[in-house]
Design a protein that fits this description.
The structure holds 2 protein chains of 2 kinds. By secondary structure, chain A is an all-alpha fold. Chain A has a single domain (about 5-265), classed as Orthogonal Bundle (MetI-like fold), CATH 1.10.3720. Chain A is about 70% helix and about 0% strand. The longest helix of chain A is centred in the first third of the chain and has 37 residues, at about 60-95. The relative contact order of chain B is 0.11. In chain B, helix 4 (about 115-125) runs parallel beside helix 7. The chains are: A mainly alpha, B alpha/beta.
């Protein structure tokens, strides 16, 4: 086992911290998430470590619980996006021909529409619940995963070991999951880190615009929205969730970089 | 006595290795190599891949590829020590006093520039001649190297000339600045055997006429025997034997050199069989979509059980296409393929499981023929699982049995392909094919990417397996020596047609047709003066 480089260690530590807080949020948060406990926009103090928000709820508790929502939605949407995107992408690359053309052009079509606008349109006609939110985000994002996995897989699909499997008479399942997927994994894993961060930003943007997580449930984008008016008066409440988003993004990227580095040194990776 | 152009003394070259999961460490690539080269002489460096021959060649201009350091010894070029020379000194040296001819001319030329511009570029930029003089010199070199229309040849772009011509153009580029030393790094290895002869003769003529010194790097002893005055045999970065060409070829001292000299001399007596053929191809033709002409036309061949058909030809002759049609990867346009008495479907989907099982294929590049993420055990075990439904202990036992058959043993079960040498990889591929209990194995250039001694081992293994398992081979190759070693029948292919077909003894004895004659004459023989006889 090679020693883990320092940036990756920092990334792992901060990411781990975020995940831990997200999982145990209800036990860690000092106050209830939507309980009014103080005055409007109280400054940081011994009782309220980060102060209170626009209607007097404890900001730290809201950040912790909001993190749980944001991270959960982002992870779920990444999973949806990866499962759909990579399976369809690998399938398209292996099958080829007009099926591949049809799928790829359809993906081009979807990608031609700005994702945010597409999501806003869909969410404004659908009931905004967490599952709908996850599905919409995941499916829209799967177009990008589709492109990446199709590109990686078409490189691998022409290798002789894939030809050998086809000559042996193997079915499509074996070719996709046993011959191609293990060799396509390392760029996909690195991409997963990136996609997760985009999901965090995406759900925060949607909440900020009022079409994401609905109040009184907290999430980071929503907290920014609720407290944005305070900035005019020099109250930093809106900046705190922004800092949380930035910290999470950077640390996940540090980890993803390290994973890519580590796996691509084996044969079959992006830099092999 | 004049000073030698190049003298290398006790050279040591090291590189930093990064083994996965361990701390980086230094490895020695070349150790204690000394040589000296006089004006007008050619020294051949020979050895298998990894022997350090290219590294030594490049060190003659004090250059090391990425990660390589010239850590010890002395390199004198025309009397100056250059190993420790500064970048500025080296810059004025390289491309002027020492020049380099690479293996792949196609990759070494800029496709967007005309040949003349590239041939004279270094000469002009080093101030060795004015543009006009350099152009005149280049045209003269084009003449010498036997290029067509030397006056206007330089106006062409790289894609407008053949591979052999491009290799000659690169030789012209190297000779244009009138260097003291030229390094030839496998200049004919990527060429077809019939083209190789011409390029070799042209290079030899030009070196002789201009009186430069040359280092000639190759893995083919027969080639170097034609061109070199002295030969140095290298192995794992050390000198095995260093002597005159005559001494090395006729009276090698070391065992390793003896093995190299005798490697191409193997032959076996042909077997015949009167059983019905295992594979019969009748009136076969095929084309690639959108090409508009036949890549294969009217192919008629048959393979008897337990025998080997060698399909010989240059690149582009349609040998591999024939294999693709027989395996069903490329549907034929016309004609029939009969396998073991039953007609084979044109495409892969229409073939039965037993068709697939009894017809196996081994590829040239064992590297890409094995999934890098599967262990040797999985690779060999999968056909057993797939065709015979083997599981658990039985599967493991049979896999080990196969590993022993290919002379590797159970210890290789859990290794990944990246942990195997080239020869071991090819053996695993053979075991994978054998696992299916095939009646016919198509071997597509299986020994071409291997070093001569390793290739010899693979051929012997294939030969022994045939005797034991009664399997037939269709052996695709461009190498006549391989054909002599393994074939019972031979099909010579040229431009998509079989131009000569029959038992080995009759195909390889006169009267020849024009093409077979050319092919046989072009194969370098391991004796002095062979090229002069053939090239006239």
């Amino acid at each position: 086992m090679r020693s883990i480089p320092l940036p990756a260690l920092i990334g792992l530590f901060i990411t781990g911290l975020f995940l831990f807080t997200a999982v145990f949020a209800p036990w860690i948060a000092p106050y209830g998430v939507s309980k009014v406990v103080g005055d409007v926009w109280e400054p940081a103090s011994g009782t309220f470590w980060l102060g209170t928000d626009n209607i007097g709820r404890d900001l730290l508790s809201r950040l912790i619980c909001g993190g749980q929502t944001t991270i959960f939605v982002a992870i779920a949407a990444t999973v949806v996006s990866f499962v759909t995107g990579s399976i369809l992408g690998l399938f398209a690359a292996v099958v080829g021909g007009w099926i591949d053309q049809l799928m790829s052009r359809f993906v081009d079509l979807v990608m031609a529409i700005p994702t945010l606008i597409f999501a806003l349109v869909v969410l404004s006609v659908m009931p905004v619940t967490i599952p709908v939110l996850i599905l919409v985000m995941g499916l829209l994002d799967s177009t990008r995963v589709f492109r990446l996995s199709r590109a990686v897989a078409s490189d691998i699909a022409v290798m002789e070991y894939v030809e050998a499997a086809r000559l042996r008479g193997e079915g499509r399942g074996w070719v996709i999951f046993r011959e191609i997927l293990p060799n396509a994994l390392s760029p996909l894993v690195a991409e997963a880190g990136m996609r997760f961060i985009f999901m965090v930003l995406f759900v925060s943007t949607l909440s900020f615009l009022g079409l994401g997580v609905q109040p009184p449930a907290a999430d980071w984008g929503g907290i920014v929205k609720e407290n944005k008016d305070g900035i005019v008066y020099g109250i930093p409440a809106a900046l705190l969730p922004a800092i949380a988003i930035a910290a999470l993004s950077i640390s996940v990227n540090l980890v993803a970089d390290w994973v890519l580095d580590r796996t691509s040194s084996l044969k079959g990776g992006r830099n092999a | 006595m004049p000073k030698p152009v190049l003298s290398i003394d006790n050279l040591k070259i090291e590189a930093t290795a990064y083994p996965p999961g361990e701390a980086p460490r230094k490895i020695t690539i070349v150790d204690g190599v000394s040589l000296s080269l006089d004006k007008g002489k050619v020294l051949g460096l020979i050895g298998e891949s990894g022997a350090g021959k290219s590294t030594i060649g490049l060190s003659a201009m004090a250059y090391g590829r990425g990660g390589i350091e010239l850590t010890g010894g002395e390199i004198h070029l025309s009397g100056r020590e250059i190993r420790k020379a500064k970048g500025r000194v080296l810059r004025s040296l390289r491309g002027a006093e020492v020049t380099y001819v690479a293996q792949s001319a196609a990759a070494a030329f800029n496709p967007a520039k005309r040949l003349m511009e590239q041939v004279i570029e270094a000469t002009v930029s080093h101030g060795r001649a004015t543009r006009k003089e350099a152009e005149a010199r280049a045209i003269e070199l084009f003449h010498k190297l036997g290029l067509p229309e030397p006056e206007t040849f330089g106006d062409r772009y790289p894609h407008q000339v053949s591979g052999g011509q491009l290799q000659r153009a690169m030789t012209a580029m190297a000779l244009c600045p009138q260097p003291d030393l030229v390094i030839f790094d496998e200049p004919t290895t990527a060429l077809d055997v019939t083209t190789q002869l011409g390029v070799l003769a042209a290079i030899k003529g030009a070196i002789r006429d201009l009186g430069v010194a040359a280092l000639y790097i190759t893995h083919d002893l027969a080639v170097v025997a034609q061109i070199a005055d002295d030969i140095m045999v290298l192995r794992q970065g050390k000198t095995v034997e260093y002597g005159s060409t005559e001494q090395i070829i006729t009276a090698p001292q070391e065992d390793y050199t003896k093995a190299l000299v005798s490697v191409t001399a193997k032959e076996h007596t042909e077997k015949t069989s009167d059983q019905p053929p295992v594979l019969e191809v009748k009136g076969l033709s095929a084309e690639y979509r959108g090409m508009g002409r036949d890549v294969l036309s009217d192919i008629n061949i048959a393979i008897q059980p337990g025998t080997t058909l060698a399909v010989v030809g240059e690149s582009g002759s349609g040998k591999s296409t024939l294999a693709r049609v027989i395996t069903g990867l490329l549907p034929q346009k016309a004609g029939d393929v009969t396998f073991d008495g039953r007609p084979l479907s044109h495409d892969l989907k229409g073939r039965s499981r037993s068709d697939l099982q009894e017809l196996q294929m081994i590829y040239q590049m064992a590297d890409t023929a094995m999934n890098p993420r599967q262990t040797v055990g999985t690779i060999i075990g999968r056909p057993l699982q797939f065709y015979f439904g083997m599981k658990g202990a039985a599967l493991r036992a049979r896999t080990i049995e196969l590993l022993e058959e290919i002379e590797l043993g159970a210890g290789f079960m859990d290794r990944y392909p990246a942990e195997l040498s080239g020869g071991q990889k090819q053996r695993v591929c053979i075991a994978r094919a054998l696992a299916a209990k095939p009646k016919l194995i198509i071997c597509d250039e299986v020994t071409s990417a291997l070093d001569p001694l390793v290739a010899e081992g693979i051929l012997k293994l294939l030969y022994d397996l045939q005797a034991r398992e009664q399997v037939s081979y269709m052996f695709i190759t461009h190498d006549i020596a391989t054909v002599k070693a393994i074939a019972d029948t031979i099909a010579v292919m040229h431009l998509g047609k079989v131009v000569r077909y029959g038992p080995k003894s009759s195909v390889l004895s006169p009267p020849f047709d024009d093409y077979t004659d050319l092919l046989l004459r072009s194969v370098p023989e391991m004796r002095l003066g062979w090229m002069e006889e053939v090239a006239g």
